[in-house]
Amino acid sequence: MIIIWRGLGFLVAVIIFGCSLTANLLFNAKVGKGYYDHHKWPFAVSLIFSAAICWFLGNYLRKRSDRIVIDKKTGKEFVLNQSRHSLFFIPMHWWAPMLLVGAMILFAIEFLH
Fold first, then answer.
1. Do strands 5-6 and 90-91 pair parallel, antiparallel, or not at all (unpaired)?
2. pLDDT in tens, 10-33
3. CB-CB neighbours of 28 under 10 Å
4. Can you tell me the distance from the alpha carbon of 80 to that of 94, in angstroms, rounded to the nearest whole number?
5. How does strand 5-6 pair with strand 86-87?
6. What one-character DSSP code corresponds to residue 64?
């Protein structure tokens, strides 16, 4: 599988992995070994935390301004865009609503099943 990102967009995957790993360790330590694996709602909680981090970090990074850089050899100016951060062509801050929808689906599956 090829992962396509721009800027710091890869952090979406890192954030989701980090939050789910933290939730796994916490729930298994507090409730009992294997709890995280047998229930969907702890992963849904980790997705909610991931969504919050992606939203705030994505909005912060989106507000960064462009930098104008001069190439020493040619003397030409070019613009470095520092405000575009996406994963699979989806901007980082737009991952938050998708993660929330995923969390709601997991809650529904867990509690309606």
1. unpaired
2. 999 999 999 999 999 999 899 988
3. 15
4. 22
5. antiparallel
6. P
Q: What's the angle, vertex CA 24, arms to CA 39 and CA 46, rounded to 5?
A: 80
CA distances from 50 to 3, 35, 38, 81 (A): 19, 20, 21, 25
What value, to the nearest 5°, has the Cα angle with vertex 13 and ends 8 and 65?
A: 20
Closest to 103 in 3D by CA, of 27, 53, 49: 49
Task: Return the structure tokens found at 6.
Answer: 């721009």
Which pair of structure tokens corresponds to residue 101? Answer: 């929808």
Closest CA to 4 of 83, 87, 84: 87
- Contacts of residue 109, defined as CB under 8 A and 6 or more positions apart, other chains included, come to 40
C-alpha–C-alpha distance, residues 96 and 92, integer Å: 8
pTM: 0.83
Summarised one tens digit per residue, pLDDT across range 57-93 is: 999 998 877 777 888 888 888 877 777 889 999 999 9
